[in-house]
């Protein structure tokens, strides 16, 4: 497996584990109003910090850019869709944070709203990752040249995902612990 693909798959594994946690918290919330709000806050912080600021911009600047250069006729529609989803990610994260804040303040619809927002976000994240893994990355392997991969590999090997790196650090240690406790293999394994 190419180094960039290895990094991307590790990062997607971590994001999928996060999506599963969000979905479980959403189901608990919808069922009986219980939620680990600190965990959801940590997840929202992680999403704002890593996927939105490092992972997606690098996919776009290196992988997607090279794909468009090599075979625009084969990838423009798919990459436009994925980049549109990346653009909307900031809005989704803001809505996620807003629903958390509303829940903390209370109110008659705060539980229902947070359950809906988290459930929708978890489904979006799973679907987005699936499309990248099964369509975009497969197409990249078909159309990119070794010289493209040299540049892409170097860029992605420099990524430091707080969940995938050697140690998650204190800020995301609890999120990492929850991922491991759920039976998801630790990211990078």
Topology:
Layout: H1 3-32, H2 37-49, H3 51-70, H4 72-105, H5 110-143, H6 146-157, H7 169-181
3D structure, described in words:
The protein is mainly α. The chain has one domain: nmb1532 protein domain like (Four Helix Bundle (Hemerythrin (Met), subunit A)), CATH 1.20.120. The protein is 83% helix and 0% strand. The radius of gyration is 17 Å and the shape is elongated.
Describe this protein with a few key phrases.
mainly alpha
Describe the structure in brief.
The chain is 83% helix and 0% strand. The protein is an all-alpha fold. It is elongated and about 55 Å long.
Strand tally: 0
CATH class: Mainly Alpha
As an assembly, this protein is single chain
* Spatial separation of the terminal alpha carbons: 15 Å
- Indicate the radius of gyration in whole angstroms: 17 Å
Q: Low-confidence parts lasting 5 or more residues at pLDDT below 50?
A: none
| Proportion of residues in helical segments | over 70%
Summarize model confidence as the mean pLDDT: 87
Domain count, please report it: 1
Number of helices: 7
Which structural class fits the helix and strand makeup? mainly alpha
| Run of helices and strands | HHHHHHH
């Amino acid at each position: 497996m190419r180094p960039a693909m290895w990094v991307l798959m590790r990062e997607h594994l971590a994001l999928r584990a996060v999506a599963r946690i969000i979905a479980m918290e959403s189901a608990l919330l919808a069922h009986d109003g219980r939620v680990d709000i600190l965990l959801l806050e940590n997840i929202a912080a992680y999403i704002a910090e890593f996927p939105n600021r490092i992972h997606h911009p690098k996919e776009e600047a290196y992988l997607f850019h090279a794909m468009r250069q090599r075979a625009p006729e084969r990838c423009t529609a798919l990459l436009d869709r994925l980049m549109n989803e990346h653009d909307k990610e900031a809005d989704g994260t803001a809505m996620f944070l807003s629903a958390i804040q509303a829940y903390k303040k209370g109110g008659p619809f705060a539980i229902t709203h947070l359950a809906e927002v988290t459930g929708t976000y978890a489904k979006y994240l799973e679907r987005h990752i699936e499309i990248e893994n099964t369509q975009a990355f497969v197409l990249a392997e078909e159309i990119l040249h070794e010289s493209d991969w040299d540049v892409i590999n170097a860029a992605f090997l420099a990524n430091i995902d707080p969940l995938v790196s050697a140690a998650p650090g204190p800020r995301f240690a609890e999120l990492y612990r929850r991922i491991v406790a759920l039976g998801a293999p630790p990211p990078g394994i």
